[in-house]
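[Q] Does anyone have a clean structure-token version of this?
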Amino acid sequence: MALMLAAVARECPSAQFPRRPGSMSRKIIYVCFGRVTDKMARDWYIDYLIEKGLTVEYWDVVSLLREEHSERGELNPDYLRVLRSFEELEVMLRRPENRDAFYVMLITYVGRFTRIFRLFSKHECRMLNFAWGALPRDPAYKWRKIAAWLPKPYLCAKEIFNRSRAVALRRLKLVKPFEIAFVAGEALMSGNNYATKVVPINYFDYDHYVKAKADGGQRLVSGRYAVFLDINLPYHSDLALLGYSPIDPVGYYRSLNWFFGLLEQEHGIKVVIAAHPRAEYDSTTFEGRQTIRLVTAELVRDAEFVLSHTSTAMSYAVLNAKPLIFIYTAEMASAYKQKFIREMRIYADCLDVPVYNIDAISGPNEVELRQVNPKCYERYKYNFLTSRQSEGMPTEEIVFRELAAT
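[A] Here you go.
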């Protein structure tokens, strides 16, 4: 799958399809520090834009920014380009056919990744950004996060330097503004998106919810059930990128399965696993419980209630007005006290739902299944998932409209 420098320099046609009458010949290049997967192609509108007749490429720059890794659902399409060095990347940027392309930057703008943004700015690239996936924050969260680094002087200094560099490069105009920022939710719309144009959109979970609700198709699971929003925690490839210690998988899954059994017995239901897109499980991981991938919208639609850690997929519980319970283990509390656990409590307060250390539970009477607070759910919907301007139109159509008009 990898492309060497010589291969990059060769003529390598993009993914082009017969154009429909009236369609545009715009080239869109996704630049990402993750692998192209079936979920990526779906949720970032790659499949849709190709269907609409656009020329699409996906530049995998994992080797430039993070550790090598593989992901469940990886694809090897004709439009994939894997770049192994900044020299290869610059070769691609200089190619005449890429001069007027739109570059969708699927890379977080933080200090340690500013080199790639500077390179794209140097070549006057037309960069686009998707600002979505925001979550509730405690006003003091930023300072608490910085304070967590203080016992580690070297890492603290590095973090402060990276943050300062990212801000300075933009203030000095050494990094270009995004040509368009596609923004989901009022929380991000009200911020500084560093873009020439800001366009309201929906978070992709919202669009999946709308489609699943409209479809009203056959249930995927028979009988009454609760759904667990899996995040593949012990094996998640982003843990190393974020500098977090791993969790022991044996103890983690033992705790989850014990708790699921408790709920099943108490409520007369079964627990179904909405598997993380990157996860690969055998039947023993969740003790034979049904595990399904890439249909979370449909699973939550028909569930009795929802169990979650810190997954953005909790939005499906909000949109479907389902009771929600946040859960964590004792080991998670020890390893991620300043991160996941604090965030989980912020989300729980925002939505007025309970949060439990499941290793501290001894019986079902200690677990509260609260009624939904409609005001909290409604506020969350418009703050983080959609807007009054965009909720009536699928995001894929909004994106295509803007690309066609620019």
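[Q] Thanks! Anything notable?
[A] The chain has 18 helices and 13 strands.
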